[in-house]
Amino acid sequence: MCRQKVWRGGTRRQSVGETDERLLALIAQNNAAAVEAMVERKLPRLIRLAMRMLGDRGEAEDVAQETFLRIWRAAPGWRAGEAKFDTWLHRVALNLCYDRLRRRRETPVAELPDRPDERPGAEADMLAADDQHQVRRALAELPERQREAIVLQYYQELSNSDAAEVMGISIEALESLLSRARRQLRSRLGRDRDEMT
């Protein structure tokens, strides 16, 4: 069953199941409902991607916003079939993340301050949060290309071929990056656990 959505400013009805390319064509015509549908469809993935790359919610939201600005600028000239929209979208978001990471290197910070969890919770919640923190920290310590490969495949759930296309490398090169990244993550996480005991 296909849900229907009423376009603002008129009686035209639009299927929620529209393709990305159709939404882009409507965005190029300044259709506000198409913009809203695209944001609703892509925002959670963009924020997750940027969070994994940058480790900061505010920066992740800024990257998502800038990515949407680029979508709106590119919409009038988008040629369906020349590039896969989702691949292009991930590449834009990753490039924006790398711009921010480069700026961070220019003004180094010793270590990000720990933020206390202000929610009351059980010890299990604290341990789970500590594990997540260790994974985020270990992920942040990976070389950029290895981190990118891990984020695209495991967190963005892209196939090997789509992730390789986003990164501009062969599937074999992607698999090599993933293998090295997994080894480093296992080593780092094992070392962290050993230090805690």
Automatic annotation (TrEMBL):
GO terms assigned for molecular function: DNA binding; sigma factor activity
Chain ranges of the RNA polymerase sigma factor 70 region 4 type domain: 134-185
One example of a Gene Ontology biological process annotation: DNA-templated transcription initiation
CDD domains, per the entry: Sigma70_r4
Keywords noted in UniProt: DNA-binding, Sigma factor, Transcription, Transcription regulation
Top-level taxonomic group: Bacteria
InterPro entries hit by this protein: RNA_pol_sigma-70-like, RNA_pol_sigma-70_dom, RNA_pol_sigma70_ECF_CS, RNA_pol_sigma70_r2, RNA_pol_sigma70_r4_t2, RNA_pol_sigma_r2, RNA_pol_sigma_r3/r4-like, WH-like_DNA-bd_sf
The keyword DNA-binding is annotated on this UniProt entry: yes
Pfam families per UniProt: Sigma70_r2, Sigma70_r4_2
Chain ranges of the RNA polymerase sigma-70 region domain: 38-105
Family stated for the protein in its record: Belongs to the sigma-70 factor family. ECF subfamily.
Protein name: RNA polymerase sigma factor
